Records
---
Amino acid sequence: MDQPRAGTHYPRSTGEFQAWFRSDADCLDYLAWVRWPGGFTCPSCGHAGGWRLGGARYECAACHRSTSVTAGTIFDRTRTPLTVWFTACWLFATQKDGISALSLKRSLEIGSYQTAWAMLHRLRSVLVRPGRDRLAGTVEVDETYIGGEELGLRGGRARGKKVLVIIAVERIEPRGFGRARMALLADTSAASLRAFLVDNVEPGATVITDGLQSYRPAVIEPYIHDRLVGAAGPAASKLLPGVHTVASLAKRWLLGTHQGAVDEAHLASYLNEFVFRFNRRRSRSRGLVFYRMLELAAAHEPVRYRDLIANPEPRARVPLPPRARGRPPSLEREPANRPWRTDNLTHSA
Ligand SMILES: [Zn+2]
């Protein structure tokens, strides 16, 4: 598989990003190229080959159904111009701490907070790639609480409610950390701990935990258990420095970038965003992260606004569906040369 190249397949810098995506049509063409790198493939019948009808639509050469580039992706039926989407995606992928809905609303002249909020949640929803690699090697695992006094999660029964979260971090010898995973945990039962491990840690890994009893039946084959007997509470955090570091960085990020304005129902997707960025912290090219995100977005089924409101119970501070929202203005610039078309990239979807 060819690797996408900086400067041809994805922009190297913000300046290059602006030069490439000067119009909504440029964005649409890039999205079509990301979605069908080898040329149009019909989503209805699977036939490879067809022609562009103009605008966003393509017609299949076999079944003659027409399809829009954005149909069946997270950009399905969007009223937000693609220049605005691309800029949001660029900021999301390239800013060290991401971007809050409020900043996005202000910087891109998006009419309502809800629209900006929903855009960021649609981007978050593509981050968890099915079948992604699990953590391997030596992995620290521990639970923590997020919320409480310092971060009053919204949507709970009471402000100050704490949510149980489990963290796993690869330990790199002699020092340092690799990738991380975080998830909400219903309880500290062996079954809940085991389910998290199976989803997130490769068989054969050495799993380091504190002395909590329920880890004993949870960390059995195919894992090797390194249980720090007698260690619990603050003492354990020194023995599990990876999870301790990730927990404090995540809490600081929720308080900083998002000012604690995170409702409990969406905490899991914020943690996914944090982990996505943490695991790419050493990536030399932020542009590549942008490209990978668009690849995921083009392959991800549409996410409806009602699906983003995870909790059906009406709650005062969960954003309401936008009413008569305005279409944000396009960020169009003068047309550019579409350099990704000058050199074809063959890669698997
Ligand atoms: Zn077809």
---
Amino acid sequence: MLVRLIIGLVATVIAFAIAGRRVLFLYRLTRSGQPAPERIAAAKNDVGGDVKGQVVEVLGQRRLLKWTGPGLAHFFVMWAFFVLLTVYIEAYGALLFGLDFHIPLIGRWAVLGFLQDFIAVAALLGLIAFAIIRIKDSPKRLDRASRFKGSHLGGAWLILFMIFNVIWTMFLFRGAGVATGNFPYGNAAFASHGAGNLLDGLGRHTNEWIESVGLLLHIGVMLAFLVIVLNSKHLHIFLAPVNVIFKRRPDGLGPAQPMMSNGQVLDFEEADPDEDVFGRGKVEDFTWKGFLDFATCTECGRCQSQCPAWNTGKPLSPKMVITDLRDHALAKAPYILAGSDAEREKLPADVLKEAERPLVGGADVGGVIEPDVLWACTNCGACVEQCPVDIEHIDHILDMRRYQVMIESSFPSEAGVMLKNLENKGNPWGMSEMKRADWIGELDFEVPVVEDKMPEDVEYLFWVGCAGALEDRAKRTTKAVAELLHIAGVSFAVLGPMEACTGDPARRLGMEFVYQMLAQQNVETLNDAGVQKIVASCPHCFNTLSREYPQIGGNYEVVHHTQLLARLVDEGRLTPVTPIEENITYHDPCFLGRHNKVYRQPREIMDKVPGVSTREMHRCKDRGFCCGAGGARMWMEERIGKRINTERVDEALETDPDTVSTACPFCLVMLGDAINEKKNSGAAKESLEVVDVAQLLIKSVKERAE
Ligand code: SF4
Ligand code: SF4
């Protein structure tokens, strides 16, 4: 007994000392990041949300269970960690107080004995499922189709092996306990009794030895596991709950975050280039929440598997952005944590070399993130939506873009024209602001244009957007929305020449200064005019007006046109009557769907149109696939891999549609271009077209109105 006790305690002290040292290192590294007081305040002010996050995301494994097979396997393995804590209490009790120890009050309870055995067996089955998934994926490891491409698979196998060791040593220890009569549970602990029956024939003396050895092995495996976990990607076992607490509310989608410096929103007028942080130019510029994100990544590759850039052959993998930043932060850590320049000079050459790597740069300069990676992102949000541990990829990508654009002036040159046009003309095409109201002349009714104040009897301001006002294909949507509102008797006015770009393309490119300029101008116009309710037909404008302008004092009730039109149809104020006998597949715009969760209304509108038969693409709703225009990609060349819009249209063609519908002017243009290419090559029928759901609705409503 004494020898067992000494071995167990010495191993525990050594392992906890090693683990404690690692925890301290990780804590110091994370704390070295920029402050993020808003995250602490959000967590404090939303205790209900914190609890819900832990219950739904961590304990309920909501996102993982969307991937049924692997999700279920992970669910059981994760719960095994909680339930088997009670087995470790019993193991330490046996080590300290004797092998016949049981937990006071509940330690002989059949339900607990059953649960411990059940979860261990379920976790074992989970491990087998994980092993099969990994073996199946193994030949494809170098193939982009595998979500594990770029993951550290050796480490994953080691962890599976360690969990397996936890389980078999548990049954060895408990089975021997059954045979010696020390085991506190009855037959409900079915697997332990099964192991006991197998060991029983070895006799009491042998089983006493097996029980002691099994106990020490069980404890030893856990201690080794603890040290391995703290030095591997499986840190998420401890960090996932913390990351979920400090996540953005309600999630990392929707609004882009203001530029933060030293824990405060950066004020461009007061900013000091020596003191302030402009985006992220080196890894130390990330906040502690950024460091927490990097350390929490499980390398599961779910983000990568959904990323439109990755799926079309570009070098961007959201997973590898996070793991590259993590690996760089860990390698640079001695430099970051050194107390003085003198200490830094004494660091090994490899650390100093790592410290000199630019955060963003090509292979020639050893950049951590390649420029082609940074600029490939469409901000579509598929990665954030999928991530089971709430990592906020878009925020990190955007912050790195901000540094590149604002400090280095380094970004794809094509986007420079768009920025100039925004600065000089208030729209990305550089057209005269007077042209913004031209579409009104093509209608057969009057649309009031706000000159100073919103007219008293007008309910909505119709925010037309640059594309809706100036791009020929998008103008058709604008006119359809206006006609539908007119038919339904909804009063509305437009800003006409007073409307400027919301600033979304500048902001998503990383040019926060131009965004701020446009946003402040628009908020001033809207506030001065007394605007309260806005209907927007562009999802990017909708997102910016409703969720970004409140950051600078613009607070309005904003709806997307599909939300308003669906309501009007529902209320009987619009009645689609003319049948449209077509197969239609709907493309979810990312900034309407994933970023703002509007999936239902566009589909409801189509369902109400007689004759329409809708077919979903295999990637739809929260797993929808971007058109390629977001993240200011509309204004950049797409030189690498397959074009994203072509990939999306290929998916649409699989449904054999007569029409592709959508609800965003940018999707309309991108999909329209790809459809035209398909028509030219004979891959799509000549009659195929892409339309906004508002165009479908007006087609069906109008005849009756006339
Ligand atoms: S936002 Fe979209 S394009 Fe950007 S990394 Fe995530 S999934 Fe890829
Ligand atoms: S970022 Fe999230 S989804 Fe992507 S690999 Fe890491 S844990 Fe998985």
